[in-house]
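Fold this complex.
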Amino acid sequence: MTKKAVVLYSGGLDSTTCLAVARSEGFQPYALSFRYGQRHCVEIEKAVRNAPLAGAAEHRIVDLDLRAIGGSALTSDLAVPKNHLGDDAIPVTYVPARNTIFLAVALGWAEVLGTFDIFIGVNAVDYSGYPDCRPQFIAAFEKMADLATRAGVEGKGRYRIHTPLIDLSKGEIVRLAAGLGVDFTLTHSCYDPDPQGRACGACDSCLLRLKGFREAGIKDPLPYVKGRIRLDD
Amino acid sequence: MTKKAVVLYSGGLDSTTCLAVARSEGFQPYALSFRYGQRHCVEIEKAVRNAPLAGAAEHRIVDLDLRAIGGSALTSDLAVPKNHLGDDAIPVTYVPARNTIFLAVALGWAEVLGTFDIFIGVNAVDYSGYPDCRPQFIAAFEKMADLATRAGVEGKGRYRIHTPLIDLSKGEIVRLAAGLGVDFTLTHSCYDPDPQGRACGACDSCLLRLKGFREAGIKDPLPYVKGRIRLDD
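Structure:
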């Protein structure tokens, strides 16, 4: 019998690759997205359209309005910074406790589905410096999850937060995705797309994505605002 | 300077008492409620009205639709069971991973507010058998929180999840509340109130509340569907 797994799925490059990894490991992916007040709503529209094409057995979208607590450029009126990647500080696009919150809801759905497997496409190599992308955070979450649930009371807690991308460079992620047959036109990364949904090419997320394609020697098929980004950019 | 603390606040007896404890310990309470698809919406209306009266410095309500993941009588079409308290099984009113989810959002708000203190009115004595009310869960959450946030990256994580009610019987909670001057008419407990907002007197939450008042020898001033419950019931 195929085992179910909850896959946190934003429709971006990393989570789409993560979903493909889950499938390649024999899991039936139950994709979970959040409408959390992010400014890039195009992300959700694309996720809804793309989840079945990417192989999700089911796709749920949870409404969770994080604007109520504020504190991030992604959920408030702060400006999304451009071209500052590499700065050591945690950027304003960091949403306080976002992965903790997303994993907590994923844990709830996993419990409903009767599975102990959750996939999240966090990455601790080419990342934006977000604290909740680090392996020590994931390990602590797993321990907590075992105690948080029915299984914990029965002494059967054995949740596993799968992070297949955590040690990969962005270039390695792009190559892994290509090897698994991921259709890159089904992935969306930009924090600040234009009204036509074209990527800005300058936010952290675009810069990381473009770096990955460049490293992998693969051409990104997505349209960008200032024309198609070339590999030799 | 008064320190801020995020207080998970449903408007119920326990969370209102918890807010009063936070104040008595010198904290400025920032009350956090959730509209999570619970059937008892009267709970939120009362919380909005009562939070300032109970002494909250601020009150935020986060919309988080847990009906998307289902799995509980409180968020789906399952019937709320009556008069079955004491059964060893975890009841159908258990919302999978609810406290994990609520604490995760509280953690996000705490980070925005710049505080490390979070209060939650969980109770491991007279409780409904929910796994996420146990001290070992709270301890694991604290450890995870230290790693999940900016402070964690800087090695300064020292989150504290305060659980002032965790070792108290329901009778002791009622006495504590009375001692702190909690106005019991500002607290609402019933999972299944009638359209006038009167408590059913039979759900887990009502049974626990009534047990508490009985043990404390204090009369519950709230109206119940079948007339006012008497102390000698």
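Chain B has seven helices and five strands.
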